[in-house]
Amino acid sequence: MPVITCIDDLRELHRRRTPKMFFDYCESGSWTEQTFRENTADFQDIRLRQRVAVNMEGRTLATRMIGQEVAMPVALAPVGLTGMQRADGEIKAARAAEKAGVPFTLSTMSICSIEDVAEHTTKPFWFQLYTMKDQDYLRRLIQRAKDAKCSALVITLDLQILGQRHKDLKNGLSAPPRLTPATIADLMTKWTWGLEMLRTERRKFGNIVGHVKGVEDTSRLGEWTAQQFDQKLDWKKIEEIKKLWGGPVILKGILDPEDAILARKVGCDAIVVSNHGGRQQDGAISSIRALDPILQAVGDDLEVHIDSGIRSGQDVLRAIAMGARGTYIGRPWVYGLGAMGEAGVTRALEVIRNELDIAMAFTGKRDIENVDRSCILVPAGFSGVWD
Ligand code: GLV
């Protein structure tokens, strides 16, 4: 077993052990990848304070996200195609999350279906919804999430159309992969991945295949998104979906204070400040820079979460100290999954947990609930000097 000291170790193993098209899918931003790069880089501009001679004994990271108990304020973000990073990937990740006591969010574009994940786990998970043109399918999808007892609906607002990711186009990304000389050459070096994939039947988009009438080929994410996702999504439709669901709702993809105010108006249990991991609007502000203005606008009466760019427990601490109530990791758990399956997701969560715990102790706090702005040093003008 290799010694894993940080998320980057898992990333390197993921790169070595997973077919290139899937590693690249995870590691892509859109177009120039400016926002993808800045998401991580901007976190590092926030410094952590160090306090000394403060009793550090008896620390706790337990808190609540949307009123639900979590062992630490870190959820697994919805990520598409994770059953291609490793066979049965979503089931493995959901189990690791369950054991760690943190929420798992299943993507609409997962390989394992909602029912499959529910059958192989014992606690409710969250379901992420893409809004589709096919209203009948959309209603059935929401009903399936209800039947599976999902405990929150995470509605993604920033992907009615897909940002262009150059690597996916060049690699001919599809699920399952199409066999071309290039993919065959790559797969020949990824034996464990291939053998596990041969043993599972879950190799297609499980929430879609067999559930959408008249759609023959879902394998190419880009084409399917262009055909099926609802470009007309607006606040009125969000309200309708909310009613249809009738349970806790999290609105994901908010990057602007004006949209945060509209989200509050439509009513939701939390928003996620997010630019989709830098995969959509390239040139958009990083999530961590967007956080403070959004907190100023709605933070007093709306729960605010954040994703995009978190790669360590120190980053989680930075976000919580800024005022977020919860955070999501996406790529870190996918690196873990691609590196070592369920054990890798567990390891990713352990790494983040340990880093968060120690970093919090060094700031002089023992309870994550008491972490606040006094724990960090934020450079002047951090949230923008733009007009
Ligand atoms: C889907 O969520 C993607 O970013 O590819």
From TrEMBL:
SUPFAM superfamilies given in the database record: FMN-linked oxidoreductases
Domain FMN hydroxy acid dehydrogenase: 1-381
Binding positions (glyoxylate): 25, 165, 276, 279
Cofactor(s) listed in the protein's UniProt record: FMN
Residues in the signal sequence: none
Positions annotated as active site in the UniProt record: 276
Keywords, ordered alphabetically: Flavoprotein, FMN, Oxidoreductase
Name of the protein in question: L-lactate dehydrogenase, putative
One GO cellular component term noted in the UniProt record for this chain: plasma membrane
Annotated family: Belongs to the FMN-dependent alpha-hydroxy acid dehydrogenase family.
Native organism: Pseudooceanicola batsensis (strain ATCC BAA-863 / DSM 15984 / KCTC 12145 / HTCC2597) (Oceanicola batsensis)
Positions bound to FMN: 78-80, 107, 128, 130, 156, 252, 274, 307-311, 330-331
Highest taxon, organism lineage: Bacteria
CDD domains: alpha_hydroxyacid_oxid_FMN
An annotated Gene Ontology molecular function: FMN binding
